[in-house]
Amino acid sequence: MSASAPRLTGRLVVATHNPGKLREMRELLAPYGIEAVSAGELGLPEPEETGVTFRANALIKAEAAAAAAGLPAIADDSGLCVAALDGAPGVYSARWAGPGKDFRHAMERVEAALRERDDFAPAERRAWFVSAIALVWPDGARLEVEGRVDGALVWPPRGDRGFGYDPMFLPDGHERTFGEMSAEEKHGVPADGSTALSHRARAFQALKQALDAPPA
Ligand code: IMP
What we know:
Layout: E1 11-14, H1 19-29, E2 35-38, H2 54-69, E3 73-82, H3 103-116, E4 126-136, E5 142-153, E6 169-171, H4 183-187, H5 199-212
Parallel strand pairs: 1-2, 1-3
Antiparallel strand pairs: 3-4, 4-5, 5-6
This protein binds inosinic acid.
């Protein structure tokens, strides 16, 4: 993360074509009096996510949007990493669901890959979600933060409240999977300043802290 972020004023591009992510970013940025416009609304093309880390992909998306729009731009990239699979599916989390975005299939793929491992043992179902957020200014200044939540993978999947891999992810210290939790419980940013639960909410907390820090 860079030490101090330039002040954010005026308009900012949220480099996503995903309405859910746009809504979350707008809510986060609202207290700063910033007008958030999406890359989709501006008709900006989606760059190819060629990075091998979440951070690199977030930066690719934010840099492309900042350059195309001449405005500061924010982007995120996220996914599930499984310890016994050497961090897979990782940056390929969305792609494991195939063109039909079938996450039941993606979860089955993760489970099958785990069972194929010679060293597979129920105790070795450690996994974590990561969310990387990059904020890039047109002059090249940038701010990068990351959030992570650790847990274990359960099988069969439980709950139908979340999205993606939520039903098989049991966060440490909890007895319900992300798929069994309300959006507020999973993604909410506690008003009392305590640590949020989800990777994305934790990345948001880190971003907010960096934006609120006095200039160096
Ligand atoms: P992105 O849109 O490139 O960041 O892809 C993220 C992918 O990672 C999603 O399609 C999901 O499969 C997975 N993912 C990221 N965050 C979560 C989460 O909070 N719950 C479940 N799956 C997630």
